[in-house]
Amino acid sequence: MTKTIFLLNGPNLNLLGKRQPDIYGRDTLDDVEANCRALLPEGYDLRMLQSNHEGQLIDWIHEAREAACGIVMNPGAYTHTSVAILDALNAFEGPMIEIHISNVHKRESFRHHSYVSLRADGVIAGLGIEGYEAAVRRILTLTRD
Ligand code: DQA
To answer: Considering the entire predicted model, what is its pTM?
Structure first.
């Protein structure tokens, strides 16, 4: 059976490549998806999802309980605010990697705390969009038979 990795992206990441390119770069989420897909061995698939709405992200995390072998998530600003997303991730049993394109620790102090890190099996920050590939590689390592 095909193993599916969910790549979840939170608010404003639909503008990746257009907003604040000095911080987030010029690549888009489509580029991220193509780069990650290129890493998948046979038997794996991925679902790239993005929403600006907390409830939608939570619904996808619930869906992942049945449909995903692992989650890579960039929760955007919800990282720093959302206990509800943390609770949803705590209900997911597979591996979960948190990724941030920018180095949040080099930025404003409100970005230094992450609720999601309380659940994440790994945290990546500041590698640009390459961080998504590192996260997918880690999920592959953790879920290969
Ligand atoms: C981000 C960092 C967050 O603080 C910010 O709110 C984002 C993007 C990142 O990928 O660097 O939207 O998660």
So the answer is: 0.97
Distance CA 41, CA 145 (A): 12
* Separation CA 103–CA 126 (nearest Å): 4
How confident is the model over 13-23, as pLDDT tens digits? 999 999 999 99
Residues with CB under 6 A from ligand 1: 12, 74, 76-77, 79, 100-102, 104, 111
CATH 3.40.50.9100: does it fit domain 3-143? yes
Helix axes of 54-67 and 83-90: crossing angle, nearest 10 degrees: 10
Nearest to 45 by CA among 79, 68, 72: 68
Residue identifier of the C-alpha nearest atom 13 of ligand 1? 76
Domain assignments of the chain as residue spans, ordered by start: 3-143
DSSP state of 9: E
Give the Cβ contact number of residue 57 at 10 Å: 26
Q: How confident is the model at residue 145 (pLDDT cuts 50, 70, 90)?
A: confident
Q: Is 62 a catalytic site residue?
A: no
Is there a contact between 24 and 131 (Cβ–Cβ < 8 Å)?
A: no
